[in-house]
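We recall that each integer encodes one residue's backbone shape. We quote one record:
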Amino acid sequence: MGFFADFIAVLKKRELVFIESRKETDEVYSFLFEKGKDLTWNPGQYGLFSITHKNVKKATRPFSLASAPVEDVVRITTVIRDNPSEFKQALLELTPGMKVKMSGPLGAFSLRDNSPSLLIAGGIGITPFRSILKQIEAEGNKGGKQIHLLYIDSGKSYVFKDELDRAANNASISVTYLDSRDDLHQETNKFIGLHKNNGKYLIAGSKSFVDSTTTYLKNNEVSKQNIMKDSFFGY
């Protein structure tokens, strides 16, 4: 999607009906909404979600669409700790039938071609990759592209682990769970060594994680043209 397409997508707002929330781990919650007939997206994209049932400062926030287009719900997943922000408190107060507004889908964070691809998720940065892998699981891996997911979580909670493991039943998809930067660098080096000239790299997580991982890749002679980034901001 180019700038103009994103601009048009921002202008198009739709109401989504809340279905339910799910507690994924001690600090991670998913919120599920009815999809609606005309809504679709590219796996990896995000939406701008707006709280409408109460007055909230900064009532609109971006969230990756953690559900795949083939699923019949819109899912967003986020970390909610003690003393949450007004926005996240408002999410927790949603009851079935209530509505939020969504603009989008937006962004170009997605698999582009059949090049071998390394997906690098830091913590809650797993959300766009769930969408990508669930879509591939449903459609099959067209072209047989090699996809390797590195999922680093220092707390070892690994949101969506069961689903990711099922996706990895596909012979061309593999998932490695990590809990340290040293291990992440070691696994990244293996991929770079195997796919020096044609590998693609997608990184999602906190801005500091994305920035440091991007720097590591560039320092190891990975071209910036082969790196896609999705930085998450806390709120």
